[in-house]
Design a protein that fits this description.
Region (Disordered): 131-158
Oligomer: single chain
GO molecular function: RNA binding
Radius of gyration: 20 Å
Strand content: 25-35%
Subcellular location: Cytoplasm
Order of helices and strands: EHEHEEEHEEH
Number of domains: 2
Strand order of the largest sheet: 1-6-7-2-5-4-3
Biased composition (Basic and acidic residues): 133-150
CATH class of the largest domain: Mainly Beta
Helix content: 25-40%
Protein name: SsrA-binding protein
CATH superfamily of the largest domain: Small protein B
Length: 158
């Protein structure tokens, strides 16, 4: 049997970094059923409205959409069920402290297979206001213009 190596990304939450300021990231395992794993291996999942909560010392991933496995039977899973995340107790306790202290949220950034095991990358994040988003877009545009100008100068254009 050949063991998988490396990291195969299944889904990414592209809007997360636009809507949230990421302060810290964590990796957590996922507790899944068989049909969920098979559906993920087909590369099907959506993290768009997903978030994580800490309930009674356990971390739960909520509102993630993993579609039903096409070849599944009556044993198929519910697409938007809550899924338990596998983390060390110390990490969970640190997260609880940070979330309660300053109103931060846990947002999934990506879902991937690492050495054959399903993992999720969680961000400890703070929501951005509209003016923060506009400022970030303006900074990105100005940085792009600067890089274009430098590139033109190197090529001998004006």
């Amino acid at each position: 049997m050949v063991k998988e190596r490396g990291r195969k990304v299944i889904a990414q939450n592209r809007k997360a970094r636009h809507n949230w300021t990421v302060l810290d990231t964590y990796e957590a395992g996922l507790s899944l059923t068989g049909t969920e794993v098979k559906s993920l291996r087909q590369g099907r999942a959506s993290l768009v409205d997903g978030f994580a909560t800490v309930d009674h010392g356990e971390v739960w991933l909520r509102n993630i959409h993993i579609p039903e496995y096409t070849e599944g039977t009556w044993t198929n899973h519910e697409p938007r069920r809550s899924r338990k995340l596998l983390m060390h107790k110390g990490e969970i306790l640190r997260l609880v402290g940070k979330i309660k202290e300053s109103g931060l949220s846990l947002v999934p950034l990506s879902l991937y297979f690492s050495d054959g095991k399903a993992k999720v990358e969680l961000a400890l994040a703070k929501g951005k206001k509209a003016h923060d988003k506009r400022r970030d877009l303006a900074e990105r545009d100005s940085q792009r213009e600067i890089e274009r100008a430098i590139g033109r100068a190197r090529k001998g254009h004006r």
